[in-house]
Amino acid sequence: MVATVAYAYKARDAAGKAVKGRLDAASESAAMTRLRTMGLSPISMVEVPQGAGLNMEINIPGFTKGVGLKDLAIMSRQMATMIGAGLSLLRTLNILAEQTESKPLTKVLIAVRDDVETGVSISDSMAQHAEAFPPLMVNMVRAGETGGFLEGALESIAENFEKEVKLRGTIKSAMTYPVIVLIMSLVAVIAMLVFIVPVFENMFTNLGGQLPLPTMLLVYLSRSMVYVVPILAVVGIAFAIWWPRNKNTEGVRKLLDPFKLKLPVFGPLLKKIAVARFSRNFANMIGAGVPILQALHIVGETSGNWVVEQALIKVADSVRQGHSIGAPLANEPVFPNMVTQMISVGEDSGSLEQMLNKIADFYDQEVESATEQLTAMIEPLMVAFLGVVVGGMIVALYLPIFNISTLIE
Asked: Ramachandran region of residue 51, left (φ > 0), alpha (ψ -120 to 50) or beta?
């Protein structure tokens, strides 16, 4: 990748109006050329240090936002539209870099644009930015470049990412309420143990007498909060730092992903999500002309579940030996019988892509329905949980008051 330099420029537009701005380029001549492609006549060009003064960017490890799927979906859709309208790839990348609202994506697009300007293919340049462009996107772009249907490949990528964003939004909306209620209940419990219970404890101590067992347990928990709260805070901070760095490692995924699929309520939902993602990604890869073995490998990596990934590795090994896709897929418990049978029918009829799209649409609807049912079931359960916990603590606090007359005597 070619290093870029920031330049502050003054120029005149087609109407003769003076404009000024800033752009990144590999050299001053490249910056001049880019201004002319933008329809501007350069007046002056001055190199400026990047990241200086008020333009300095402060990146806090763990809190820097990367390139999201929604940003990639918008970028792919706009890129397909501009290429379809006859704009050159270089000018398309230049426009995208200027108008995107995502700063991380802007930086990556500038780097890709500079690579393309030096003769590197867009797919090879994207492959150098794995933190921004997933393997699915890189390989579909490469297939579109090679086959001469880059516009169609980008449309498929945009549609794929838009559906993925919708799927994630459905799951997030279903989980928002339970998580908020759980956090509220934990905060309420800790606040009562730290601030309210000690007040009642002092009152009970002054009155004397034997406290009921529930109240004694509550007082013991309140006293232990002096040690528990700092420990929980340290553990929480340590986990927040450790988790983003290790959640995608082989060891963690190997232990956590099979456990997720075995959960009583969430397991079936996570399996449907994995099947929907597999079917949609596989259909798009096949439609873009990516070879089957390569598509299976990439789809496994993007499935989001270690169990699915390992199953697809076995399927790819079987396909490499000359077998069909449906037969080895049927031996993997993570894939329902309906899915394997429909894939087998698609292989036999030569309509595998269409069949995979139907599977993806079906499981998208299943996920949406399951999340709605899950939300309807979890809401009353969480309210009941909050009532039992907080209500139980209040009852435990007031039990000694029922015997207050005896204590006073």
From this structure: left
Say what the pLDDT of residue 55 is.
Answer: 44
Burial class (CB in 10 A: 0-12, 13-18, 19+), 238: exposed
Residue 163 near residue 356, CB atoms below 8 Å: no
Burial 52-86 (b: 16+ CB within 10 A, else e): eeeeeeeeeeeeeeebbbebbbbbbbbbbebbeee
Q: How many Cβ atoms from other residues are within 10 Å of residue 135's Cβ? A: 16
Residue bearing tokens 């219970």: 197
Report the distance separating Cα 199 and Cα 233, nearest Å. Answer: 24
Average pLDDT on 333-350 reads 89
Task: Please identify which residue in the block is written with the tokens 């190997």.
Answer: 254
For the chain, the helix, strand and coil percentages under 3-state DSSP, each to the nearest 5: 75, 5, 20
Show contacts of 154-157: CB within 8 Å, 24+ apart: 154/76, 154/77, 154/79, 154/80, 154/83, 155/76, 155/77, 155/80, 156/284, 156/287, 156/288, 157/72, 157/73, 157/76, 157/284
pLDDT of residue 207: 66
User: What is the token pair recorded at 296?
Assistant: 């299976």
Q: How many CB atoms lie within 10 A of CB 353?
A: 16
The answer to whether 157 and 142 are in contact (CB under 8 A) is no
Q: Which amino acid is at 111?
A: A
What is the spatial distance between Cα 207 and Cα 394, in angstroms, rounded to a whole number? 19
